[in-house]
Specification:
22% helix; alpha+beta; globular; Aminopeptidase
Length: 114
């Protein structure tokens, strides 16, 4: 098993969509076709500020995604990175020695408030 992190390719659309639907569902958000296509257009447009990386397992295919964008930090004279989405497929194989398993990508359960 080998996992590679890379930019998404046009051929990744449907596997990416499956992962992103899982991300949206875990957050209780309805993902429409229109929203998904718009985001994919952003992610594959080099001129757009929104970027993406995908994790690809050589046996299982796409197993993770990250969507992010940079922003200026004027007082530091630098840039920061804002992560908009991070999701690992629940059935993704774990690679020994990695610091993140599919469990760390799940949102925390909401606690009951009185």
């Amino acid at each position: 098993m080998s996992i590679v992190i890379r930019d998404p390719r046009d051929s990744d659309f449907f596997p990416w969509l499956t992962l992103y639907e899982g991300y949206a569902a875990a957050r209780g958000v309805e993902l429409t076709e229109q929203k998904a296509l718009l985001l994919w257009t952003w992610l594959t447009d080099p001129a757009n500020v929104e970027r993406a990386l995908v994790a690809v397992d050589d046996e299982a295919g796409l197993v993770g995604l990250a969507h992010f964008r940079s922003f200026p930090r004027p007082l530091d004279g630098d840039f920061g990175v804002f992560v908009d989405a991070f999701h690992v497929a629940p059935d993704a194989p774990e690679e020994p020695g990695t610091s993140c398993s599919p469990r760390c990508a799940r949102p925390p359960q909401a606690s009951a408030q009185p």
